[in-house]
Write a structure and sequence with these properties.
heterodimer; A: 102 residues; alpha/beta; 4-stranded mixed beta sheet; globular; B: 318 residues; 5-stranded parallel beta sheet; 11 helices; elongated; disordered N terminus
């Protein structure tokens, strides 16, 4: 499983495909993140528009990305939050932690 | 074939931007006993679906504006049970896969063969009628239970499905939001049982990383899944539905897990990568009871379902 990752300007974008609730999807996110992080980008956007379910495992992976960026004064954003994923983020107050890119 | 009186005919909506195709296919459907409405494009079709009830929607995949694929996705979001047959001229497997992933019941290739169309309509109608029967019967269910167990290594890396949730959703007994909540709580309970219970993995390992950025939790998990004393420990699942309540019991054979992180969970503390799973379970289920040091969790969800028409889910719509 691989998630498309691309750099546009000073930002990196990761498109999550499918649900973010398994070891495979978590590993795919980690690899996509590393690919962009290793290119020196410190503004990274995770596109969750295609995600229907994100569980604590997936959230943990997202937060690990957040922590690595924060340690280097970087910013992790998500886009956009819809449906049940939005509900889950709000439940855990992650919508206040991770800005949503317009 | 003798045409049935319209009021007893199954209802078909045909969406195609080509007038000749519409005339031909609607004539074929009419001779086969269908009451057929036509839409000239995807937008028109969606409006008609919003106002009327159809047993089957037959749509061309390639239409300007709202395509057949987009129409399928839009309709399925509002009514997951709606049967849709897609007609495609594209020979690629990808196009067919896209349709089926979007929830289409069947597909036909252009040029549409008369016999193939009739057969597809017949087959899909049987499925629609069976679904209606199942949905009706589920309203009278007094007990539906399942029991299954598996070793940790059997499901490593896999998503264990909540069969009862899938069944209740497909018969319209629960809506999409309830299904997603059940799925989420169940997945969290399974991960707790497998990882923290059977594999004895501490959440704190998620905060520690190797030089490649991989967390030690994942590394140790992979190692322990190769050790029989961990990998062969089992997880047991019992699910019950009595018509109003869904109960899910998950039990592991490990050390249980530490519930303290959940009890001290501070959502605004990003440094805490654990405890969220337990919070998600308690937030999505109506009642949660932990027993035997966390080795067993019983989750309860009350089901409100109205008889009759399938519920559509606007609350999870984008």
């Amino acid at each position: 499983m691989e998630f498309p990752a691309q750099v546009i300007g000073d930002k990196g974008y990761i498109k999550v495909e499918g649900d973010l609730d398994s070891e495979q999807s978590g590993e795919a996110l980690r690899q996509a993140f590393n690919e962009i992080f290793d290119q020196g980008k410190r503004k990274i956007v995770i596109d969750l528009s295609g995600v229907q379910i994100i569980n604590s495992y997936g959230i943990g992976k997202v937060l690990m990305c957040y922590k690595r960026l924060k340690a280097e004064n970087g910013v992790l954003m998500v886009k956009p939050l819809n449906g049940f994923v939005k509900e889950t983020f709000e439940l855990l107050m992650l919508d206040k932690l991770l800005p949503v890119e317009d | 074939m003798v045409e049935k009186p319209i009021e007893h005919s199954p209802r078909l909506l045909l969406a195609d931007d080509d007038v000749v195709t519409r005339e031909i296919l609607s004539a074929i459907a009419g001779r086969a006993g269908w009451h057929c409405d036509v839409a000239t494009d995807g937008t028109c079709a969606y409006e008609m679906v919003s106002r009327n009830s159809y047993d089957i929607i037959l749509t061309d995949m390639e239409m300007p504006g709202v395509s057949g694929l987009e129409l399928t996705k839009m309709v399925k979001r509002q009514n997951p049970a709606q049967a849709i047959i897609v007609i495609t001229a594209l020979a690629s497997t990808d196009a067919v896969v896209q349709c089926m992933k979007a929830g289409a019941s069947d597909f036909l290739s252009k040029p549409v063969n008369l016999r193939s169309l009739e057969e597809s309509l017949r087959r899909t109608l049987v499925m629609v009628q069976q679904y209606a029967t199942d949905s009706t019967l589920f309203r009278f269910v007094e007990n539906l239970s399942a029991r299954y167990s598996f070793a940790s290594r059997d499901v490593a890396g896999m998503r264990v499905p909540l069969i009862i949730g899938e069944k209740l959703y497909r018969t319209g007994t629960i809506d999409l939001s309830t299904k997603l909540k059940l799925d989420l709580a169940f997945q969290e309970a399974i991960v707790n049982a497998l990882d923290h219970g059977n594999l004895e993995l501490s959440s704190s390992l998620r905060d520690q990383f190797d030089c490649s950025g991989k967390d030690l939790y994942s590394t140790l998990r992979e190692e322990r899944l190769k050790i029989p004393s961990y990998a062969e420990r089992r997880v047991s699942v019992v699910t019950e539905y009595d018509g109003t309540v869904i109960r899910i019991l998950v039990r592991d054979e490990g050390q249980g897990f530490d519930m303290k992180p959940a009890q001290t969970f501070r959502p605004d503390d990003c440094g805490q990568l654990h405890g969220r799973g337990l919070l998600l379970i308690s937030a999505t289920m109506d009642d949660v009871v932990y027993r035997d040091g966390g080795r067993e969790v019983e989750m309860t969800k009350y089901v409100d379902h109205a008889p009759g028409v399938l519920k559509s889910d606007s609350e999870t719509a984008d």
